[in-house]
Amino acid sequence: MLRIVILGLLVGLAALVGLFTHRIVVENRPITGTAQYYVGGHKLQIERAMVRSAELRDGGAVNRLDLVLQWPTLAGAASQMGTADPANLIFMSLEDATSRQRSPDDIDPAERPVELYARFLESDAAPGPGGLVWRKFRKATPFEGEQLFVSSPDERQFSARCPAEGTKTQDVCLWQTRLDAMDVVVRFQPRHLAEWRHLASTVRLLVPKFRAGK
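The structure corresponding to this sequence follows.
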């Protein structure tokens, strides 16, 4: 009886070792090819190497799709998660904006500097990196502890909220835009503010390609 129990334990252990070894091999394989996603009502074809969650790299229907990209090319960087310098990673989220656009309370992300943020900003302004204009949010407002960087003279081109210096929040900036009826949220390190034109233009070229499957 004892021999049977020991034999069973050895068989189970061998199976676990085999499963663990198989998992390591699978996870170390290069992430290649594309997968089809339905983000709300949008049909997209996206490189698997761009998809942040390993469980979603075979495609499917999602409410939001999170991507991880490499700076400055914005190529897929999923295989570099945990090893790359976080400053060289750009995080992008895609959501269907169709239902939001129907709401009378909806504010296009490009309009937020004027329609939403302006009422919460201090009066002072100063030059920022890359020709951006720097503004600081007032205390006791929903955006306390943040600062705003906007393009000039057209704030619609780019606006990023970043943690104010000395805050304990995660040190990333957030840029929101709307492309092809999708809300696009981009998170990046403040050091890239000086190259905001490259970031914005590359994102605006990349997102339409997802729909076309190019």
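The helical segments are 2-28, 98-102, 112-115, 196-212.
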